[in-house]
Automatic annotation (TrEMBL):
Highest taxon listed in the record's lineage: Bacteria
Keyword RNA-binding among record annotations: no
The name this protein goes by in its record: Malonic semialdehyde reductase
InterPro entries (UniProt xref): Nitroreductase (IPR029479), Nitroreductase-like (IPR000415)
UniProt similarity note: Belongs to the nitroreductase family.
Domain Nitroreductase: 20-164
Keywords tagged on the record: Oxidoreductase
GO MF annotation list: oxidoreductase activity
Pfam families, sorted: Nitroreductase
């Protein structure tokens, strides 16, 4: 199990898995590659996520840090606000969904739901391996489609940075800004605001405060 500094550990109100408590989204990564075996392990965890009809509508485009040309090309697909920090990660990925079911060609209404499950598996596996991932909506969709020749019927969705968190003392103004974002209080809505019974907005007795 990875060792995560206490200020990054999630304050769960229930006895959840340790990897859930220790998962977070860093903005500062150590500028070093991630071992291939660990990358494959994260992808394998995602592969075993549940999906509607076992359709597995997700794909991943992977760029490793040591492959500088491919890595720089993927950095170029990110929106400007993400490039400076994400370019330090050991691995970058683009997630892609297929819009229709393999078995019958009908629209897959839950493709994004299934991608989310796969990405969550990946995040928890990464945490267990001493890594962390940071997922981004901020990608240039048209540039990504062009760069990777993504076929019709498929849609690029998010970018994912994977790497070793940088716990060193921030020296530059940029690093201090990123460090402040990382260490800001972690908050989530209470279950009573999310779990309803009988009708919308009525908190379930299971989770009432």
């Amino acid at each position: 199990m990875s060792s995560v500094k206490q200020q990054y550990v999630n304050a769960s109100e229930a006895d959840v898995l340790e990897s859930i408590k220790q998962r977070w989204s860093p903005y500062r990564f150590e500028s070093r590659p991630v071992e291939d075996g660990k990358i494959v392990c994260c992808l394998e965890a995602a592969r075993w996520a549940a999906s509607s009809f076992n359709d597995q509508p997700w794909s991943w485009i992977v760029a490793r840090r040591q492959e500088s040309e491919a890595f720089d090309a993927m950095v170029g697909c990110l929106l400007e606000s993400n490039r400076a920090w994400a370019s330090r990660a050991g691995v970058l990925m683009i997630s892609v969904t297929r819009n229709t079911f393999r078995q019958n060609g009908k629209p897959n209404r839950v493709a994004l739901h299934d991608l989310g499950q796969a990405a969550a598996h990946m995040a928890l596996q990464a945490t267990q391996l001493g890594l962390q991932i940071h997922q981004m909506a901020g990608i240039n969709l048209s540039a990504t489609k062009l760069q990777y020749d993504i076929p019709d019927g498929h849609q690029a969705q998010t970018a994912i940075a994977i790497g070793y968190p940088d716990f060193s003392k921030p020296e530059s103004d940029f690093d201090r800004q990123m460090h402040n974002r990382e260490t800001a209080p972690r908050t989530r809505l209470g279950l009573s605001e999310q779990v309803f019974s009988e009708k919308w907005g009525v908190s379930s007795g299971l989770v009432e405060a």
